[in-house]
Amino acid sequence: MSGAVYDYDDVPLELVEELAEAESKGRFFGAHIRDHFRYRRVISAAGSSGARPGP
Asked: Which of 11, 13, 46, 52 to pair with 36, CA 20 to 30 A apart?
């Protein structure tokens, strides 16, 4: 893990609930959330905040 924290926009509650129940959180996140929703970095690995648009 990098230690960075990201905020993803408009992820449906159903996906959040499915992620919480997923056996592999990383696999679920990669398949259903990453690269599917806009996001911004809230805290970088060094602790400073920044922003980066998603797809």
From this structure: 46
